[in-house]
User: Which sequence fits this backbone?
């Protein structure tokens, strides 16, 4: 099952992986930010990619390849012992209402696809994020994009909701709590780490 095109795969993201990426984008609201998804093909169902963690990458100079290469190597080295690897890419555009997959996102998504062909791009949807405080929406505040047979990135479904699943149904409730307590101030990304190596990009204390 699920060995066909990327469009048939489902992507299940854990609460911590999901929240960390959204908080990172909130910390740098006026900038484009990105991150990577860490996980594996589910041992129980090869039609599911399990995204168990995420790493916030950059909030400046996103297109630069050398820092990206350094970060990907360090991330792979850290997670390999857990049987995990980089399985996708997250991107938040600079402009609030921009939900297009930009050239930078496509290039980095293509790069990650060389190592993990089923890699998706998750694109932040700011309107859904903003609406969180008003509603009880349990669907992700991200759009799922995958590469089709001709290697073009496309959004899956109108909302992609059926293919991108939150592992914990209450993830948006927890996210809302973290936003109101300004938890986003504590997120450290690779940019921060490259400026000051004492800052830990694994964010070990974020969810304590």
Assistant:
């Amino acid at each position: 099952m699920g060995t066909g095109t990327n469009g048939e795969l489902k992507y299940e993201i854990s609460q911590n992986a999901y929240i960390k990426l959204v908080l990172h984008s909130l910390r740098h609201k006026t900038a484009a930010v990105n991150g990577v998804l860490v996980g594996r093909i589910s041992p129980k169902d090869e039609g599911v990619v399990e995204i168990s963690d995420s790493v916030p990458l950059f909030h400046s100079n996103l297109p630069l390849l050398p820092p990206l290469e350094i970060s990907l190597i360090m991330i792979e080295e850290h997670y390999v012992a857990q049987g995990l690897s980089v399985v996708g890419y997250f991107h938040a555009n600079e402009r609030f209402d921009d939900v297009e997959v930009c050239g930078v996102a496509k290039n980095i998504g293509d790069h990650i696809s060389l190592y993990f062909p089923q890699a998706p791009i998750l694109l932040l949807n700011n309107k859904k994020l903003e609406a969180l405080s008003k509603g009880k929406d349990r669907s992700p505040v991200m759009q799922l994009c995958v590469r089709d047979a001709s290697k073009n990135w496309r959004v899956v479904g109108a909302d992609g909701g059926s293919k991108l699943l939150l592992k914990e149904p209450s993830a948006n409730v927890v996210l809302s709590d973290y936003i109101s307590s300004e938890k986003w101030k504590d997120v450290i990304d690779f940019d921060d780490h490259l400026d000051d190596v004492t800052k830990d990009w694994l964010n070990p204390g974020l969810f304590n």
